[in-house]
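sanity check this chain:
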Amino acid sequence: MKPTKLSVALAREAYEVRRQEAHGWLRGTTAGRTVARTIRGIADIELADRAMTLAAQEFTSVLPLIVAVGTIGNLDAVSETFADQVGIDPGSLTTITRTTSDVVESSPPTFAAFGVIGILMVLVSGTSFARALGRVYGKVWDVPVLSLRGWWRWVAVLLAVAAALALLGRVRLVTAVDWIGPPLAIVGEALVWFGLWMAVPFLLTEGRLAGRVLWATAALTSAGLTVVGMVGTVYLPRAIASAQSKFGELGVVFTGITWMFVQSAVVVAATVVVKASALDEGVLGRLLRGPVPEQLAAAVPDVAPVEPEIRPDPGRRADVRDLPQADRTG
């Protein structure tokens, strides 16, 4: 793998971690220091705030886009997938409650309701979800956030999310196959999530992340979202039915946004965990960072090796030789 400036910067940061004295039982081992970095990273990124922002942006950006696209094409596959994932059906703007028949029907959206200008406005405003994601990756990986010149990447991310939802709808059809259907559907869902979360960070960071980091982020995010999806198939129908019976459509919306928050938290947390693992000074960190040749490290000013700190022998008296060169003449 061709090393990048980011991989060199990660190598330097890992070197600094290794130089620091370990204090406390958690930082006494390589694995413990990785766990400590993960906890600190989650606190620094403000996981709850970021996840809630992403959930709100998904509700106000992705959902209108799905409805708008449904006016010029078939909405069923994406609509059913969105309903399975978060409990809200964009096609009828109602709920997916397999355990109850108390469903409020509404007329399906039509192209006349949106028009060309309306769809374009939905598409442009929908990029707020991609911009919020870009800020997360910029914060975690310390890379520049996309400027307006990269607007097409925001649109590409939004369309990629919609396409992934459509693919998930097709994958779920496999569950009808006896015996092997459900396991195949789980594997297929994991693969769709993996492809999506390989593409999204690549687009939003303009390819600054190394391939190994992208693979690890996609794998961890995919595993987390697949587990959340499996839990959702059991939990969401009951939660939606209960919320609708008590609070009506407002309860449905609240439950859906809550589940979006859980999914968004998985996306953010997976990114933080991969960053903490990339700073591991052991084998795991070296695998994620990739090769960092000495000549490349020397070519990047901010990753030059730091000279070790000189510590006098506590068993002898301090000597002038222990002072820095600049202080010996004073």
